[in-house]
Write a structure and sequence with these properties.
Blueprint (H helix, E strand, L loop, with lengths): L7 E9 L4 H13 L6 H22 L7 E9 L2 E8 L7 H4 L16 H8 L2 E7 L3 E9 L3 H4 L2
Antiparallel strand pairs: 1-2, 2-3, 3-5, 4-5
Helix pairs in contact: 1-2, 2-4
Length: about 150
Amino acid sequence: MSEGKTQHNFMTLEFAAKSENESFARVAVAAFISQLDPTMDELSDLKTVVSEAVTNCIIHGYDSDPEGIVKIEAEIDGDMISLVIEDNGHGIDDLEMAKQPLYTSKPELERSGMGFTIMENFMDEFDVISEPGAGTSIKMKKRIESKKALYN
């Protein structure tokens, strides 16, 4: 990347709503973000939010129905990474309740109910849009402090 130029890049990824694809999604997004040379902590945070969001799509959006499709859009604009992770599943009936720490609609699965809280705390911007019967879209942004800048 040359000095003074804004770097812009994007990718879109779609995959079956299967739990084994959660790790694939983490690695794919991490590989895409690596061009910004994030710190290990930043990379770990981003991988965690991808895991949380994808798992929510699979378990809550589609009730673990592998016929569902999870979509991830990632965009780099300068030092900002934007992620949109969405499903076309059930949607969330009570979004405010779902955002409460420790709330889970699937207690029988021993879910912690901390997914949205983790995503919100690890990212600079966090928003959830959901419509019952039409799916959920999680939009997040994080500014990456390049290791190159830290050591110069």
